[in-house]
Amino acid sequence: MPLILLSGYPSSGKTYRAQQLLSNFIARIASSPNPRHTRFTIIQINDQSLGLSRDLYRDAKTEKDARATAYSAVKRALGRECIVLCDGLNYIKGFRYQMYCEAKAVGTGSCVMLVMVEEESKTEKEVHVGTSISKCREINTRLLANSAVAGGYAEDLFENLVFRYEEPNGMARWDSPLFTVPYEDETPPFEAIWEAMVGNDSKAKVVKPSLATVLAPATESDYLYELDKTTQEILQTVLTWQNDHPGEGGGEINFAEGTLELPACPLSLPQLQRLRRQYIVLNRQLTLARNRIRENFVVYLNNSFQ
Fold it and tell me: Is residue 115 helix, strand or coil?
């Protein structure tokens, strides 16, 4: 199920909006007559649930480790029947792109919930909470002064995070669809987000993974060894035949898997090695039987010699 990324300035109300989404989606699932919806689960992931301190954002290394922890948690939770709310700063566009690729790899959609500087909406299809910097600063100061609640960033850290924030862009595929939630709005656009991510019909929304996000198929442990060994044996056979027939152009070499027709000009070792490397690159992600490796390599050489 989809990944919903919440992004924005510190102390802008992201966790509050995430709780609103969580409550609304739980109610929708409980009351939905669609049997597909009743199988859904919702999980909220943020720094608090992962036990991460806000002070981690002071240092580049500790912040990188914190992002890796959040990424791993989201990756474990993503699935066809789990809606993941990633509630955090998510202020680096490269990190949002990484999350987008992870969601696409499992065939599900994603969107972004953003807290921006301006009060007005600037984009049309991400989740955006329009809270100004001055309002965020006011909320952060109030949280720091209230010892009864856990929240707020140190003033210098707050200003630093605001300065480093990379605003999501609804024109970028990893920040789309973008939904904007102004600070004055009582609730996010529940219906629009549900329709975009889940849908109200009986058919699930499926995102087709691209070649960049699909894992390479697993290969047998000795396949690459056999690929290297078999192709080298065929090349050695060709070189031996040429040494035994000096000055002769053309010729045929018979293998059990087929006949190799040599070109009129004798082949040098670098030429043969280049063709062998090309064949290995094309077939290293496959798992072929040994006789198929020989047969395909003979066909590949015949086509290359033409």
Answer: strand
Alpha-carbon distance 192 to 47, whole Å? Answer: 27
Name the pairing type of β-strands 3-8 and 258-261.
unpaired
Locus of tokens 């889940």: 198
- Give me the helices (H) in the chain, please: 14-31, 60-77, 93-105, 133-145, 155-164, 190-197, 223-244, 269-283, 290-305
Other C-beta atoms closer than 10 Å to the C-beta of 85 total 25
Tens place of pLDDT per residue across the chain (306 aa)? 689 999 888 988 899 999 999 999 999 999 988 888 888 999 999 999 999 999 999 999 999 999 999 999 999 999 888 999 999 889 899 999 999 988 888 888 888 877 554 443 333 333 444 577 888 899 999 999 987 887 889 999 999 998 998 988 888 988 999 988 888 888 989 999 998 888 766 455 566 666 555 555 545 567 888 888 888 998 998 888 888 888 777 788 888 778 888 888 888 888 888 888 888 888 877 777 767 888 888 888 888 887
* HSE of 25, CA atoms in CB hemisphere, 13 A: 29
Question: Which candidate, 81, 86, 89, places its Cα nearest to that of 153?
Answer: 89
* pTM as predicted: 0.65
Q: What are the structure tokens assigned to 212, written together? A: 């960049």
CB of 129 closer than 8 Å to CB of 114: yes
